[in-house]
């Protein structure tokens, strides 16, 4: 199976051929995947070099001329380093673009902390009007890329990862997908965390919801699930722990509820290791998740029983 990022360049290259509004802006990273597209569309595939602030600024300029720019590099260089340009050139000017990241939380451990960005979604949460897609499979990434480019002039972030579920799900770019139903709580698995969450909750009486679009959060779908399963919600996100707890709390603000946010911890892990070792160190492997989710659900059960 190809990775999400391997799927990215061919999909967007076809978009360049089919839609004269689409433009691609790169900062060296990922340019090899667009060599043929650059030869066909030299005016709409632009490599600015290792200049990430210019990367976003150039995309904003293209958007203001009526184009739909797709902007790509590692998450740490796409969201964190040029954040002022994301805030001002795109947000303040109301210019739309599709930011497509790679590497994100710790997909390339050998790159060190400079190439990790577990706080990317949380950082975008400080800005208004962003749609955030977190696919969990290359097929879903392709679907969400099409949704993002077709989204008029909206500001969209698509977070690609080497971590992937075994199979893709049917998604629409808006709603949560119910994967398993229970009555003792709701677990929301975001993107590539789904397979691990399903393994971790096997035998637990919980509803599992699958989220590939986290902003805006499908609050109506979440509320429907809690009507049957109760208002205890566990979030399992492949980025900074607790990133979406405020969104869940807002969705359930009129009813008593509890939220447990699980994800990447704030502590920096200073050894390269492997992706799997980072997953385990942050407690995002199936065994660790089962213990944390099970304890949360059992604790509420004891409270409900008056123990």
TrEMBL record:
Gene3D superfamilies: 3.40.50.920, 3.40.50.970. GO terms for molecular function: magnesium ion binding. InterPro entries: PDH/Transketolase (IPR051157), THDP-binding (IPR029061), Transketo_C/PFOR_II (IPR009014), Transketolase-like_Pyr-bd (IPR005475), Transketolase_C (IPR033248). Pfam families: Transket_pyr (PF02779), Transketolase_C (PF02780). SUPFAM superfamilies: Thiamin diphosphate-binding fold (THDP-binding), TK C-terminal domain-like. It comes from the Bacteria. Residues 2-167 form the Transketolase-like pyrimidine-binding domain. SMART domains: Transket_pyr. PANTHER family: PYRUVATE DEHYDROGENASE E1 COMPONENT, TRANSKETOLASE-LIKE PYRIMIDINE-BINDING DOMAIN-CONTAINING PROTEIN. This is Transketolase. It comes from Streptomyces monashensis.
């Amino acid at each position: 199976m190809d990775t999400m990022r391997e799927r990215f360049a061919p999909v967007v290259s076809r978009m360049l051929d089919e839609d004269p509004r689409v433009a691609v802006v790169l900062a060296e990273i990922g340019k090899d995947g667009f060599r043929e597209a650059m030869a066909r569309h030299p005016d709409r595939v632009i490599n600015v070099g290792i200049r990430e602030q210019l990367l976003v600024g150039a995309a904003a300029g293209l958007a203001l001329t009526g184009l739909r720019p797709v902007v790509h590099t590692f998450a740490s260089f796409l969201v964190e380093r040029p954040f002022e340009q994301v805030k001002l050139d795109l947000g303040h000017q109301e210019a739309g673009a599709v930011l497509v990241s790679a590497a994100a939380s710790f997909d390339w451990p050998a790159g060190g902390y400079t190439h990790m960005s577990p706080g990317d979604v949380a950082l975008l949460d400080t800005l208004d009007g962003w749609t955030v897609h977190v696919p969990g499979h290359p097929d879903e990434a392709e679907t969400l890329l099409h949704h993002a480019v077709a989204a008029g002039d909206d500001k969209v972030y698509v977070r690609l990862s080497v971590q992937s579920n075994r199979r893709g799900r049917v998604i629409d770019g808006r709603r949560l997908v119910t994967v398993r139903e229970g009555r003792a709580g709701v677990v929301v698995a975001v993107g590539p965390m789904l397979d691990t969450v399903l393994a971790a909750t096997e035998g637990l009486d919980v509803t599992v919801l699958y989220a590939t679009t986290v902003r805006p959060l499908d609050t109506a779908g979440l509320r429907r699930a809690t009507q049957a399963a109760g208002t205890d919600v566990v979030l399992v996100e492949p980025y900074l722990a607790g990133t979406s707890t405020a969104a869940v709390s807002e969705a359930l603000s009129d009813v008593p509820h509890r939220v447990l946010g699980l994800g990447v911890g704030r502590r920096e892990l200073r050894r390269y290791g492997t992706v799997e070792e980072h997953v385990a160190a942050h407690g995002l492997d199936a065994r660790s998740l089962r213990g944390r989710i099970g304890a949360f659900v059992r604790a509420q059960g004891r409270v409900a029983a008056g123990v």
